[in-house]
From TrEMBL:
Chain ranges of the HTH tetR-type domain: 6-66
Keyword annotations of the record: DNA-binding, Transcription, Transcription regulation
Residues within the DNA-binding region(s): 29-48
Transmembrane segments: none
Protein name: TetR/AcrR family transcriptional regulator
Keyword Magnesium: no
Pfam families: TetR_N
InterPro entries: DNA-bd_HTH_TetR-type_CS, Homeodomain-like_sf, HTH_TetR, Tet_transcr_reg_TetR-rel_C_sf
Organism from which the protein derives: Tateyamaria armeniaca
SUPFAM superfamilies: Homeodomain-like, Tetracyclin repressor-like, C-terminal domain
Length: 193
């Protein structure tokens, strides 16, 4: 009979998320993961099988944490105008960069990386970004200026806004200058005006 696990799985996934978020999927080496998670190679493989399985668990964890927070903001009825909710999401993303966190969005990073060649990762990325896009659609329905749009036009605007969000978060990770990022956020305000 094997020894029981001597680590907390949720804590290990949180730590792995930080490693993947910083280095990306391809850039996160086994030594990076072992060091960041505080695990031995045997413990990591016994608990998570392989790097991809661990990454899928990390994406699920990220969705439950970061994506859920974004959707909560976008669907917050306490902010009456849905356009204000959308602007808050973009402004918060920009503020994160000005406070020194240039990791961007883990889902956006995965969208530009392993989801291009791995169907399971692509499905996880699509699910998370789809949840944010649906949150944007809810916010648009609560915007007096946009509530009267046809479902098709509102959907197109939601698609364009999620594309803008992916662009902003990817540019942040690419260390694009703060003025350009600020203008990207301002452009969302122009689109919603």
């Amino acid at each position: 009979m094997g020894r029981p696990r001597s680590f907390d799985t949720d804590d290990a996934i949180e730590k792995a998320m930080q490693v993947f978020w910083t280095h990306g999927y391809e850039g996160a080496s086994l030594p990076d993961l072992l060091d960041g998670m505080g695990l031995t190679r045997g413990s990591l493989y016994k608990a998570f099988t392989d790097k991809k399985t661990l990454f899928l668990k990390v994406l699920d964890h990220y969705e439950g944490k970061a994506v859920r927070a974004g959707v909560t903001l976008l669907t917050d009825a306490g902010i009456r105008d849905g356009a204000d909710r959308i602007m808050a999401m973009f402004t918060n993303s920009y503020r994160t960069v000005t406070e020194g966190d240039r990791r961007g969005c883990l889902l956006c990073t995965a969208a530009a990386g392993p989801s291009m060649y791995d169907d399971e990762i692509a499905a996880a990325v699509s699910q998370g970004l789809g949840a944010l896009r649906d949150g944007i659609d809810v916010a648009l329905k609560a915007s007096p200026k946009h509530a009267g749009l046809s479902e098709e036009d509102r959907g197109a605007l939601a698609d364009m806004l999620i594309a803008q969000y992916i662009g902003l978060r990817t540019m942040a990770r690419a260390r694009i200058d703060a003025d350009t990022l600020r203008n990207a956020v301002r452009s969302v305000g122009v689109m919603l005006a």
